[in-house]
Amino acid sequence: MNGFTQEKKGPEIGDTGNKPAEGRRMNAFRVGKVIGSRVINLKGEALGKIEDLVVDIDTGRIVYAVLDFGGFLGIGDKLFPVPWKSLAALPSEGIFFLNQSKEQLEKAPGFDKNVLPDMGDLHWGEGIFKHYGVPGYERRGPWVKPMGYAYHGHGGYYGAPMHPGPATEDSYKGIFDSKTIKTISGQVIKVDQVSERGFGIEMRLTVFTDKKGVLPVYLGPAFYIAGFEEAKDFKIGDQVTVTGSQATGNGEPFMIAMTVKQGNEVLRLRDKDGVPAWIGWKKTSD
What we know:
Elements: H1 31-34, E1 38-40, E2 46-56, E3 61-68, H2 70-73, E4 78-83, E5 87-90, E6 95-98, H3 102-105, E7 111-112, H4 122-132, E8 181-196, E9 200-209, E10 214-221, H5 222-225, E11 239-249, E12 252-262, E13 265-268, E14 283-285
Parallel strand pairs: 1-6, 10-12
Antiparallel strand pairs: 1-2, 2-3, 3-4, 4-7, 5-6, 8-9, 8-11, 9-10, 11-12, 12-13, 13-14
């Protein structure tokens, strides 16, 4: 499969002419194009393929991608549900990225192909979300923009949202190293929020670099990047240039961003010593 890009079509019946602003789009793809897509990790190792998708029919959201890791792990009789939020897509190549090593996947929750589990069971699903280190189910009912949900002491799947504001400590203060400052350029393939203990909700980009690698980039607290009501300024497909300190965690590289340039706009996050500037957007034009 070379890609799962949607074919362009003309106006649908019932189009009233009330259209979004020019250039705005959503990442909508047919399920048939997604199923069968290859899955690789950040090292470029083939993990398997997407066998199926699991949807919460009450909300219309994809909960899991069901992956077949048989060719990679030598397990031919099991399937593995992976939280949809754990995957990052590169639609032009028909590839999904999963930040998991072989050793981590060998411990991943799975099920026998001939014995299907109750995927609507929240207790069953909790272990899956914890394994992949992502927030669990969002609140059901009318959609409210989430600021993220955490596990430890914050109510699990249905707990109250974590406070998105500033915390007392910068989780990356001790990791930032001015000697490892680098600049990368590439395409954003995932935008998400992760919870950091003692810090709050952290904004993260996953960038497919010009060198054909994948690098997680940690920006800063959500209250600074997006605000309480503002939409994210970054979206899948954006071309960005990031300067920051490159580090390694659990054997995988990542970057702590100083600046992120998108077009003529520059988001300034830290100085050359890693000191954060959590005082609001600082955009400049070159």
